[in-house]
Amino acid sequence: MKKLLFPLFLVLLGVNAHAQQDFFAITGKNTQSIDFKDFRVINPTTGTSGAKIFTAESSPKIFSQSGRGIISENRNSYNNSQAVTMAALAYDPANNHLIYMPMFSSNIYVLNPHTGAIILVENTVAKVSSCDINSHITRMASGYDGNIYAVNNAGTQLLQISKEGGQYTVNDLGIIKDDPSNGRNSFTAMETGFGGDMVADSHNNFYIFSASGNVFKVSTKELKARFVGKIKGIPEHYSVNGAAVNEGGKVVVASAKGAPMYEVDMGSLQATKLPGEEGLHIYDLASKYFVNDRISSSVAMTDFDIYPTKVDEKYINVHMGKKSVKGSIKLNIYDMAGKNVMNDSFTIKEGAGDQKVFLRHLVSGAYIVNIMEESGKILFSKKIIITE
């Protein structure tokens, strides 16, 4: 029996190490106000912190996207990569980058956590004013479509940050308004809706957590925020400042006040306290996971489907319903520039089940998968994102 303990320990260690590599936090110093300390890895299972990636004392090289060269920044301003007012972070799994914005600044920074290199994305789209608390960007997350989304305190700007052809672009998607059913739980009011963080689900909806623990579901199509409920099981005056989804599809929330982290079930909004450190001042959390991703990828499929769409195991499954065509099927994969990067074909046999397709040499990034008849007629298309 003892011989099994060591291999089992290695397996469990490997699982935790994998989870820890894609869960990140902005932590701060033990002060009354916001005071950036570092970006670090977080283990969402044990509630403990890991390696520090980038700190307030780091000496970074900042590459300006618009200036096309290395620049120096004023460390005493709000417009720098190590500004003290840091509270919005997202993880871009397709490129393995951390995206963040200082609260009092319109600057967007892209950090490579392995090399420490930083790209400054200057833009005139984000309208952040240091004297207007409504305009401060406090929530940011990776969307299921591969873009990064950010929202200011009052919901008057929903930003979409995209990468195309090696360049980052920023779009203002509009103003998020309260759903009429919200009543007193207003998304746009300071006491019920400001601050906090956001996460995405597998349908590219967003759940925004206010600092007070209120949860709003936001549709990017309708630009409406619907009050879902208030987190249960956290202390009365707990300040929710960070939120990110773990591997199980649940949300981990954290506080800037040095309180413990909690795991929240999104169905019941019931929170369970995590073990680990209670002295961490966490301003934001980020991960590559999505609410209910594993559940939604395997149910409610139509005649055709491709799953998972977030690929981290080098294969996808092609689902064919009972009414689907029989015989030879072609599969073509294109990158976002339209280049054909992979072709495959297989024969559909009745009762054979879903077809597993290995992606072989494809690198991290977004792709379009086309399923076609032998004649070339496209039967189904879907976007996937390879994260490893």
UniProtKB/TrEMBL annotation:
Name used for this protein in its record: T9SS C-terminal target domain-containing protein
The organism of origin for this protein: Chryseobacterium pennipullorum
Domain Secretion system C-terminal sorting: 306-385
Secretion signal, residue range per the UniProt entry: 1-19
Key words of the record: Signal
